[in-house]
Amino acid sequence: MKTADIRRDYQYGELHRHDLADDPFSQFEQWLTHALSEPGIPDPTAMVLATVDAHGQPSQRTVLLKDHSAAGFTFFTNLDSHKSVDMATQPRVSLLFQWLTQSRQVIISGTVERTERAIDEAYFASRPRASQLGAWASHQSQTLHDREALDHAFEAQVVRFGDGEIPCPPEWGGWRVTPVRFEFWQGRPSRLHDRFVYTKHGNKWVISRLSP
Ligand SMILES: Cc1cc2nc3c(=O)[nH]c(=O)nc-3n(C[C@H](O)[C@H](O)[C@H](O)COP(=O)(O)O)c2cc1C
Fold it and tell me: What angle do CA 97, 119, 44 make, to 5 degrees?
C-alpha cells in the first residue's frame, strides 16, 4: 500500500461545546481518565514535548507526565539534556498528547520552570531502583562511544551504591509547565473534526471552536 493511501475515518465520538468543562484542567482530567480506562492505549501519559533552542530551532521528544493539576504539568528528566538546555534558555514549550484509538489529541502551550528540589527528590525516591541507577549512569543527550560504555557505567553505579539508598543525582529533576492555551481535538468523519481552544484572559479561560 502506498503511504499516500493510508488514511482512516475518525468514528470514535463527538465533542460538543456543552460537553466541555469550564476549565481546561478538568477537561484534560476527564480525557486522561478516559484514556487510562480504555484498554489498548500504550503509555497514555506519554506526551511529546517541543522546545526551542537559542537559534529558534525547535526539537521534540516524548516524556511521561508525572503530575498534573491547576499548578501545572510536571515531567522529569536529565537537567543537562538537550531539552533542559533549551528550556533553561527559552522557557516556552508545547506538549502534545495523542490518544489515537480514541481519535483524540490535546495540545498545550505554556511556560516552563524547574520544580523544587524536594519534589525532584521525592519522585526520584519512588522510582524503581534500576531506573535510579540508570539516571546516575546516563549522561543523557551526550555522545556515547558504544553500548558497552553505557553498560559499564551502569555496572559501576551498581557497585558504587551496593544495597544503599540511591540519592537523586544533582543533574536530574523536574520541569513544570504552566499552560496558557489548551486545544482539545476530537476526530470526526469526513475530516470535519471538533476542535476547541481554551485561552486565558486574566483569570478566566475563554473557549472557542476552531475550524478543523
Ligand atoms: C514512551 C516514552 C517515554 C519517555 N519518557 C521520558 C521521560 O519521562 N523523561 C526523559 O527524560 N526521557 C523520556 N523518554 C526519552 C525521550 O524521548 C528522549 O529520548 C530523551 O529524554 C532525550 O531527549 P533530549 O536529548 O531531546 O533531551 C521517553 C521516550 C519514550 C518513547
Answer: 20
CA 71 / ligand 1 centre spacing (Å): 23
CATH architecture designation of domain 7-127+170-210: Roll (2.30)
User: pLDDT digits over 14-28, tens only?
Assistant: 999 999 999 999 999
Q: What percent of the chain has pLDDT over 70?
A: 100
Q: Determine how β-strand 46-52 pairs with β-strand 58-64.
A: antiparallel
Domain ranges, ordered by start, for the chain: 7-127+170-210
Q: What gap in Å lies between CA 33 and CA 49, rounded to an integer?
A: 20
Per-residue pLDDT tens digits for 104-152: 999 999 999 999 999 999 999 999 999 999 999 999 999 999 999 999 9
CA-to-CA distance for 211 and 97, rounded, in angstroms?
20
- From CA 200, how far away is CA 212, in angstroms rounded? 21
Here the cell at position 137 is 549512569
- CB of 141 closer than 6 A to ligand 1? yes
144 lines ligand 1 (CB under 6 A): no
Q: Residue 36: what pLDDT?
A: 96
